């Protein structure tokens, strides 16, 4: 199956190249750029020399529809809202990694992202797909909206409790941390070495654009209250740790808790639940599509602590996009993604 990647020169794009060049069912036939037409990807990414012999092409929807079966959009949020409708109208199937089609309510998008929302007709057609939590099959969809990195870690951490209806409404607090590649390749003052090194920063306090995305999905799963969600920048390249606190109705043994999570994720190849008392670290999922979860119940406070880790560029972006493409076209869910994390 023929694949095109827009934004191949970015971090998410680079991960798509890494995964897809050895995928058994997809072949990268074209990579697109808005700024480096005609150049070889090796000029931008020397680490790909000799592996992916590709010249960057200009974005031309009609040509793209003719030459590809599916197009991944790894472009800045705000670009996909314009580009995806053009590609879809030309006949492309699109897997979008941006935030542009995730929120069903356009007013929410405009409030949280501070920019104009995508056309409503396309938002309605877009299927938000976090595969472990999807109710229906995504087969036949033309526009897949890939979840955000923080929502992926957080929702996978919370879903078993929410579905079991044992969380007290209003009790959920999420304290999340990310490596700097989460901000992409664009340079900003906050991302340079001297600002980041030996530093820990909270940012977008009560303003993070992933709050409505998490709440939208929690509502679908059966939890209706607003959440408290804070994000921190950690001096590391990859990884997200979402530490989640919630109060349970009544009491629960840790064994029951463990069984609840294990049963929920028993047939989900990318979610690994640690034994009670063991908590995952970001390195344990680095460069892989796994989401690892650790859980604990404090019977003094009645609070559960859940620790959920992912690689932001993999399960948080490119890995999950390929997982979605596998499901969309009926391939093995794990095809091209069945490798272990890089450790240490
Ligand atoms: N980084 C992460 O951990 C995650 C990222 N995402 C989302 O994935 C998307 C890509 O992120 P990431 O790879 O980190 O970002 P980067 O900033 O690293 O890369 C974005 C790429 O988009 C291309 N681009 C810029 N402007 C345009 C334009 N006007 N039209 C077409 N292409 C354009 C650029 O390539 P060129 O100049 O060659 O066109 C650039 O390399 C974003 O929407 C992000 O929010 C989602 C989850 C996690
Ligand atoms: C570390 C860091 O800055 N992370 C980014 C993640 C953004 C992202 O992936 O945003 P979309 O919703 O646009 O896809 C942030 O917190 O905004």
Automatic annotation (TrEMBL):
Catalytic activity: N-acetyl-L-glutamate 5-semialdehyde + phosphate + NADP(+) = N-acetyl-L-glutamyl 5-phosphate + NADPH + H(+)
Active site residues according to the UniProt entry: 149
E.C. number(s) listed in UniProt: 1.2.1.38
Domain Semialdehyde dehydrogenase NAD-binding positions: 2-141
Localization annotation: Cytoplasm
Pfam families, alphabetized: Semialdhyde_dh, Semialdhyde_dhC_1
PROSITE patterns cross-referenced by the UniProt entry: ARGC
Job of this protein: Catalyzes the NADPH-dependent reduction of N-acetyl-5-glutamyl phosphate to yield N-acetyl-L-glutamate 5-semialdehyde.
Family the UniProt entry places it in: Belongs to the NAGSA dehydrogenase family. Type 1 subfamily.
Annotated protein name in UniProt: N-acetyl-gamma-glutamyl-phosphate reductase
UniProt source species: Lederbergia citrisecunda
